[in-house]
Amino acid sequence: MTSQLNDLLKPLADAVKECGKNAPWCSGTWLVSPADLKLYFDCGTGTRSIQFANPATFGANHEDVLDETYRKAGKMDLEHFAINLNPERVGLALEVKLRLLGLDADERNIRLEPYKLNVYESTGKGSFFKAHKDTPRGEKMFGSLVVVLPTAHEGGGLLLRHDGSEMVFDSGKEFAVGKPPGAIAFVAFYSDVEHEVQQVVSGHRVTITYNLYFADEREALVSAPAALTPAVNQFSVSLKNILANPEFFSKGGLLGFGLKHQYPLSSDKRGNFDLKNLLSCLKGEDAVILRACKEHGLTASLKIIYDANDGWLVMCDRPVVGLSYQVDDLVGDLANDFGGVCIWVPPLDAEYYQEQAARAWRKTVNQFIAYGNEAELAYLYGQVSLIVEIGIPGQRQDPSTIVPFDVTKDLVGAYKPTDVPNPSDLTADENGGDEIEDDA
Ligand SMILES: O=C(O)CCC(=O)C(=O)O
Ligand SMILES: [Fe+2]
């Protein structure tokens, strides 16, 4: 990126960083009625129940019940248990929405689905849950809520990690400080947060996990307006300023923001992926950027940026599937068969490229195909970018004149024409320029 453009983009990049300070998790304790803490569960041929009211008394009264029921299993699926607790009714769902989505909570409705009951005990080696990420059940699932029921325990801290930061929530300590009967502990986090449960060294740790989904208006159970945070405002104002600057993209161009979160993506029956659906599922600062762009009338879409090796970057509208053969010219194939547009040519290669000189890329492209079979859910890693069009929508830029940016590493980059485009390269796209014209 040129330094002048860098200078122009700096406030925007700073504002994005500010938005990113919102943690991808939240935790605390929540007071509910002791009646909410009655748990029913299948046991042999019948159903039994436990009242979780007071952490201190739980172990003594119920150890045997838990032992015989859970010692082997450690977890129970939804069809085998039920609890009176309703996170929506007691306000916990709203709390989680406001604190986790924070930046754009007011625009979102969420839905919770109970998922699993986990029991960790201290006998033997002590139970734990090794580091993992929860498998998203569909594109709308954005996170998990763990409710820790009030039972005395030591150890069993829930360790969370994301993007270099880490935190531990020690529910045992929370209960040890004498919470009133009916206090539960909770932790909620985005699906791309890695988490693990440390070994329980005394007592029992009992949790119920919930899947968190973005919901549309009709299914919404939780919704409330929240004030815009300063970070969100800062980004929107920086964007407005940069757009008002006549030196910025006077001939139009594209801005790219590398996504900060991972998202599950499902394919249709034919194995094709559509990035469009993901736009409504963005989280955290990704969602803030999209929202600000819309506010300022910009067209934004998700593109996937392939590092076609040797530093060539090719931008495609959709993940490329079905390329499992050896190709000679990956950049060419991406451009010709998948509508890819080359957005960065390494300086050493630029000369050849301009002369249309063929360069052989003999690469096995399997490694670029992160996505498998029909209906398979896969995570996208940092390669997907939110691309925002400035100026003429759908305008095809001359790839040899672009200003480079590295969307796979930098959060903000720019794709900028330095010449007046050739009219024959312009695409008439009245729908906001989601398409990028194929190389003819
Ligand atoms: O019990 C917990 O704290 C976490 C459980 C968990 O991570 C899971 O069930 O996937
Ligand atoms: Fe988990």
Automatic annotation (TrEMBL):
Transmembrane segments: none
Region (Disordered): 414-440
Gene3D superfamilies: q2cbj1_9rhob like domain
Record GO terms (molecular function): metal ion binding; oxidoreductase activity
Matching InterPro entries: Oxoglu/Fe-dep_dioxygenase_dom, Pro_4_hyd_alph_FE2OG_OXY
Keyword Protease: no
Domain of life: Eukaryota
Chain ranges of the Fe2OG dioxygenase domain: 111-214
Acidic residues bias locations: 427-440
Key words of the record: Iron, Metal-binding, Oxidoreductase
Family: Belongs to the iron/ascorbate-dependent oxidoreductase family.
UniProt cross-references to PANTHER family, sorted A to Z: FE2OG DIOXYGENASE DOMAIN-CONTAINING PROTEIN (PTHR33099), PROLYL 4-HYDROXYLASE ALPHA SUBUNIT FE(2+) 2OG DIOXYGENASE DOMAIN-CONTAINING PROTEIN (PTHR33099:SF14)
Name of the protein in its database record: Fe2OG dioxygenase domain-containing protein
Organism, scientific name: Rickenella mellea
